[in-house]
Design goal:
Two copies of one chain form a homodimer. With 416 residues, chain A is an alpha/beta fold. Chain A is built from 15 helices and 14 strands. Chain A has helices spanning 16-35, 49-52, 82-85, 95-105, 149-163, 177-187, 194-201, 204-218, 223-235, 240-249, 256-272, 317-322, 335-344, 366-380, 395-404, and strands spanning 39-40, 46-48, 66-68, 86-90, 113-122, 134-143, 170-176, 277-281, 295-301, 309-313, 328-333, 355-360, 385-390, 409-413. In chain A, helix 1 (16-35) runs antiparallel to helix 5 (149-163) and helix 8 (204-218) runs antiparallel to helix 9. The radius of gyration of chain A is 27 Å and the shape is globular. Chains A, B: Its EC number is 6.1.1.21. Chains A, B: This is Histidine--tRNA ligase. Chains A, B: Keywords: Ligase.
């Protein structure tokens, strides 16, 4: 019987050209974070359905690919709900597995634990252009480091990585959930409405200061409160001076240590950075996940809308999963976005030692074959990529194909 | 709520130490086959349930992790069988996906197409020591090359790979399904019983020549026929002379080209090989899969029972899947076995440029921090791995831990 040729809905076959880019970026990630002392770990793609449905996964819990029980455990006659049929599912992120991994292996792991995870995740999202139901996530986390050492190392390592990808330039924006909260408190918003205020603030880059003001008032917040809030944003600048301004202005509301830590992070990154990028203090940066507890950051490629990575400190989440309080700080790299950007600009992977194709006439006798294979081996031992192929009738077309595959040299061998 | 800490039954969390080995082997595989002109491809881990149940997967089709339909498509009330509930499953090998990939993308692929696939597969096998329900497969295939060029390149590339892994020595055994069949025909076995004869022959290394004879007779094959068969095996040697002996002996039954090709493969590999290994002609080599149509081979590490890879020519299978006849030859590397062997002998990955840990006293002031990060960056830029950590109360234990993690140098920084 014949196969269904297309991949399942929303997933894709990956071409040699895209794989080349993916492998290159994967290797760069492993190397770069390795240089900063991060260790790779891996967890199974399949997780207990209970762990995936713990309510920490938010909207993603609605998008789980669920796996049917097997053998005697599957009781089709008596099953009443979906829950009776399944015992596991494909992971929708790497955070739940990391928490489980840490709970399962903490005794064997160093503290702090600097973890690099790269792996596929699955979400049964509505398929749309450039968005797939299987995609690679790349998470870098430091567990058990309470100081800003974690933030600084994460930002330095990540900017080193992005710097190697030859984009024109990039920007890291940084804020702190504690600064966000202090600004809201100072302005007089009630604590229970902070999340709503931040959701509106997050639209600043789209609807501007006035838009934010209008939406806040529409939600019923007092004009005085909204004005006080906007005045703060008007007074602040995107640099160290901005941090210092808020430190003074929010005295008594914002812990001084929070502002000083922010200064130290920015100054350290500025002093040590090896790539060409800007680190800016951005008090309007919110990041959606409400589990962040301290500094938050986002990285974007100049001239391209949207972020290619982000993260922050989340000192409470792992404890919620595992029952053991564990401070944590992490960065998530937008692997698929980076690959897409590199493909779009037809990125050429730097400095390979050359690709040669050996074309040999049909029915080459044994002596000729041996000679060809020896010559191929000699080139390979110098680090070149060599493919050996039989000459085709339409040699011109064959050569064009090889050139398109990146073979820069083509050698021909004929029967004597 | 607390998570279930253990991975799902039969799957495992992978430690930093094992990941180091895995990443190293993956990189070596990509590099080595890359040097021979192979391109990486990838397919989704999820496949159409129809493709997984096409009867080409044999026993593996009983071990599928099946995925529940989602949304409106899942009709729990009216479902009568498992088939009504599922639309896809996790792949159990890389062969079905390769066939689908080739059918889907052939127009964009070069011919011949030299493909490297590395990816996880899943089988709901009974869990047992060293065998997992999620494991990595590594398949290398040449599609569309009808000559022994494919066999030679596959064996050369694979032996180059294994040679880089510093085992004491290894052996490649080679045979041809056509020689197997000619030997059975010459001896007078009826064609419909070849598969049974080969299953018994396959036990030669365990039960010896006499054991094979006894089992064949027990199955009711005539003594004359069995004697003739064994006589052939007694006369043959494990080298080129053995191939030539069979070429003469089987004249009229075995196509001369088959024997000559075998000679050319062995001679070419002997002449060009870069690693220290033996290639031996083994007329008792069967390999289980009956889809092989020509040369078959298996690779084993000396002093370790069992193979770490094998393959052969399968000119008919892809056509059965796709409806388009496509000749093919492939090698499957026992990735998990190789990793296990390297872990067991506590393999040290060659030549890294050193790992340094910077330990700094608690509450390091900003100036000190900047100095430390700059020094760390200087070492990283020389290719070293550097981790920065806060000094702990029990510094002795902390240093022991870092040493165990492979940090050979530890520098200490104190507040002034």
């Amino acid at each position: 019987m014949s196969l269904k040729k297309k991949p399942v809905t929303g997933m894709k076959d990956i071409s040699p050209r895209e794989m080349e880019i993916r492998d290159y970026v994967i290797q760069l990630i492993k190397e770069t974070y390795g240089a900063f002392g991060f260790s790779s770990i891996e967890t199974p793609c399949v997780e207990h359905i209970e762990n995936l449905s713990s309510k920490q996964g938010g909207e993603n819990e609605k998008l789980i690919f669920k796996i049917l029980k097997r053998g005697e455990k599957l009781k089709l006659d008596t099953a009443e709900t979906e829950g009776d049929l399944v015992d596991s599912g494909l992971r929708y992120d790497l955070t739940v597995p990391l928490s489980r991994y840490y709970a399962n292996n903490a005794n064997d792991l160093p503290s702090p634990f600097k973890a690099l995870q790269m792996g596929n995740v699955w979400r049964a999202d509505r398929p749309q252009r450039g968005r797939f139901r299987q995609f690679m996530q790349c998470d870098i986390d430091i567990l058990g480091e309470p100081t800003i050492l974690a933030e600084i190392e994460l930002i330095l390592a990540t900017s080193t990585l992005v710097g190697k990808l030859d984009f024109e330039g990039f920007t890291i924006r940084i804020n702190d959930r504690k600064i966000l909260k202090a600004m809201a408190k100072y302005s007089g918003f009630p604590e229970e409405s902070y999340d709503l205020v931040f959701i509106i603030l997050d639209k600043m880059d789209k609807i501007g200061m006035e838009g934010v003001a209008a939406e806040l008032e529409k939600e019923g917040f007092g004009k005085e409160c909204v004005d006080r809030y906007l005045e703060l944003f008007e007074g602040v600048t995107n640099n160290l001076a901005g941090v210092r301004y808020l430190k003074e202005k929010l005295a008594g509301v914002l812990d001084e240590k929070t502002a000083e830590d922010m200064e130290t992070i920015i100054e350290s990154v500025e002093a040590v950075k090896t790539a060409d990028f800007k680190i800016v203090f951005d008090p309007t940066l919110v990041r959606g996940m409400s589990y962040y507890t301290g500094p938050i950051f986002e990285i974007s490629i100049d001239g391209f809308g949207g972020s290619v990575g982000g993260g922050g400190r989340y000192d409470e989440m792992i404890g919620k999963f595992t029952g053991n309080q564990t401070c944590a700080c992490g960065f998530s790299i937008g692997f698929e976005r980076i690959v897409m950007l590199l493909l779009e600009k037809d990125y050429q992977i730097p400095a390979k030692k050359g690709k040669t194709a050996f074309l040999m006439e049909k029915n080459m006798p044994k002596e000729g074959l041996l000679k060809i294979f020896k010559e191929a081996e000699a080139e390979r031992s110098q680090g070149k990529q060599v493919t050996v192929a039989v000459m085709k009738k339409n040699k011109k077309f064959q050569k064009e194909q090889l050139t398109a595959e990146g073979y820069t040299e083509i050698k021909e061998y004929f029967n004597r």
